[in-house]
Design a protein that fits this description.
By secondary structure, the chain is an alpha/beta fold. Helix content is 42%, strand content 20%. The chain has 12 helices and 12 strands. The strands form 3 sheets. Strands 8-9-10-5-11-12 form a 6-stranded mixed β-sheet, with helices on both faces. Strands 4-3-6-7 form a 4-stranded antiparallel β-sheet, with helices on one face. It starts with a helix and ends in a 9-residue tail after the last helix. The N terminus is likely disordered. It binds adenosine-5'-diphosphate and magnesium ion. Magnesium ion (MG) binds next to α3.
């Protein structure tokens, strides 16, 4: 299987190099960055810049070289949705490597959150295919997609404000740990075993953000930054293969954002998962994303490494150039 995939990628890669002739140049640029970043041990903002070489694969996407021999965690083909006459997302093609940190950027109203709503089946796509870990998600609803391995956080925090921090995490865990209804109701020993499992696992997950001491706090009483972190912990509790973060740095101050960047990379490394994030903070996006897709009026106008994106005239015109004007 992996040999087939590898073979396909290699064949496609060399074909693309012949046709376009640009991939070699991009790879060479990526290698140069790899060397210079490795030398300094940090990127522009003191953060660990991804040192991965990105390589082309089918769907005109690029994935980190370390993921290229494995099947992609996500592949969208010609994905689209219409709201009445509005083509909110159209011909959206994207592939994400198994351990990639990918970014989805673009102006407000471009369709970024709608892409997350399509991936999590809040909306049924009007067109196209979403493959999660090689499985077509057509016909799956939101809970099914969650069980299949996609977890998300929301642009506006969604927690159970009046429940404790631990209970919020347990809601995520419910997805994963099975506890028979009857043994639970009758309080049979098996119920206590799962209770302990739930409790221990909740604290373990909270500890990722050093929040185990807050387990009994009421979620709504936490400071804003801690609520955002709790939302990520709750998403991780569902044991995802792909974590979707919708503007995780929104409302955070620069030092919280900087800590968040480190945490996102740490989560990817600890859980060995892929992360797709929507974000307007370009220090964060350019600092930790390996591959970036730019959406404008529902269509992808560019895909590439942070370097490619920052130097793409179309992206600068549509989005990056307007960042300073208070986007
Ligand atoms: N449920 C909906 N019904 C109608 N239009 C919607 C709906 N959801 C989003 N839209 C429209 O789709 C476009 C993309 O919205 P959105 O995905 O939220 O953008 P972004 O997250 O990039 O800021 C906007 O024009 C928005 O008004
Ligand atoms: Mg949005």
């Amino acid at each position: 299987m992996s040999r087939d995939v590898k073979g396909t990628y290699k064949a496609q890669s060399s074909r693309k190099e012949e046709v376009k002739g640009t991939y070699k140049a991009q790879s060479a640029a990526a290698s140069r960055r790899k060397t210079s970043d490795a030398d300094t041990g940090a990127g522009t903002h003191g953060h660990r810049r991804p040192t991965t070489r990105m390589v082309p694969v089918p769907s005109e996407s690029i994935v980190p070289e370390r993921d290229v021999d494995k099947s992609p965690i996500l592949e969208c083909r010609h994905l689209g949705i219409d709201f009445g006459g509005l083509r909110a997302v159209d011909d959206f093609n994207l592939m994400i490597g198994r351990t990639e940190i990918a970014g989805l950027i673009g102006p407000n109203g471009a369709g970024k959150t709608t892409v997350f709503n399509l991936l999590t089946k809040v909306y049924a796509p009007t067109r196209g295919t979403i493959m999660l870990d090689g499985v077509d998600t057509a016909g799956m609803d939101t809970p099914k997609v969650s069980q299949a391995g996609i977890a998300r956080t929301f642009q506006n925090i969604r927690l159970f404000d009046s429940l404790t921090v631990e209970d919020n995490v347990r809601i995520g865990l419910h997805n994963q740990i099975k506890c028979g209804m009857w043994s639970g109701m009758l309080r049979l020993p098996r119920h206590w075993v799962s209770e302990k499992e739930f409790h221990d696992r909740s604290l373990e997950l909270l500890d990722v953000f050093h929040m185990a001491d807050n387990a009994n706090d009421i979620a709504g009483s936490l400071p804003y930054g801690a609520q955002r972190r709790l939302e990520i912990v709750r998403a991780l509790a569902t044991n995802p293969k792909l974590l979707l973060l919708d503007e995780p740095a929104a409302g955070m101050n620069p030092s919280e954002t900087s800590e968040l960047m480190d945490n996102i990379v740490r989560i990817r490394d600890m859980f060995n998962i892929a992360i797709l994030l929507i974000e307007h903070d370009m220090d964060l996006v350019m600092g930790i994303c390996e591959g970036i897709a730019v959406l404008n009026f529902g269509k992808i106008i560019a895909k590439g490494t942070p370097h490619d994106i920052q130097n793409n005239p179309q992206v600068i015109e549509a989005y990056l150039g307007k960042q300073d004007e208070g986007e």
